[in-house]
Amino acid sequence: MIKFYYHPSPNPAKIALFLEESGLDYELMPVDTRKGEQFDPEYLKINPNAKTPAIVDTDTGATVFDSTAILLYLADKTGQFLPEDNAVVRAEMLSWLMLVGTGIGPYAGQAVHFKHFAPEKLDYAINRYDFEARRHWGLIDAHLADRKYMCGDTYTIVDMAVWGWAGPVPFVLGENAWDEFPNAKRLFDEISARPAAQRAGELKQKHAFKTEMDEDARRHMFPQNKAS
Ligand SMILES: N[C@@H](CCC(=O)N[C@@H](CS)C(=O)NCC(=O)O)C(=O)O
Hints:
- 54% of the residues lie in helices and 8% in strands.
- 33% of the residues are buried.
- It starts with a strand and ends in a 7-residue tail after the last helix.
- It is built from ten helices and four strands, in the order βαβαββαααααααα.
- A four-stranded mixed sheet has the order 2-1-3-4, covered by helices on one side.
- It has two domains: 2-81 and 199-223, Glutaredoxin, CATH 3.40.30; 87-192, Up-down Bundle (Glutathione S-transferase Yfyf (Class Pi), Chain A, domain 2).
- Glutathione (GSH) binds next to helix 1, helix 3 and helix 4.
- Residues 86-213 form the GST C-terminal domain.
């Protein structure tokens, strides 16, 4: 059984989708990051990085944090949602998986931070992260121009990683941002229509997560401001 440490946000969404697609038995373990639960000492033993998602696999005793590592772990465990088993395709899968984990996620996160949450509107920071988030989505979109899924004809963990960050695209890049990325939007719509994606989206209703980004939530989420 998988204990799934979850908050309704983009990186945990990737894992919610995998768990729902695979049919693995899992228990939802809510971590309300707007209440600071990511810093609970018990949770820090599972994820020292104080972020969601994380999993504990009670079958094997493995603890895994970071959504990319979790996707790879679960795909290896089940043998599901992996592309054709050869070195060339595996290399392609790893390259795009890392691009989502190290490019799309962090730049989108910083774009949201400086546009929506930073106490000062810093044009330089807004411009940089908007540019980089947009540039990364442009890479995904171009890659999908002549293939159905990120690894060709097979729906894999790379598509799940892309899907996790696709939902917030209008919030990150603006209301009409999808017009710039029609191929990525096609993939997003196709995955969102899958029953597993719908169930993954409904997980947020299984716990009363705090939704307000008030002063207290900002202190937990942006601890660099604590002293000021
Ligand atoms: N590289 C990590 C990033 C995890 C991450 O930033 N998670 C966000 C939700 S998408 C979080 O827990 N934020 C709470 C916080 O920053 O305190 C991953 O891919 O899992």
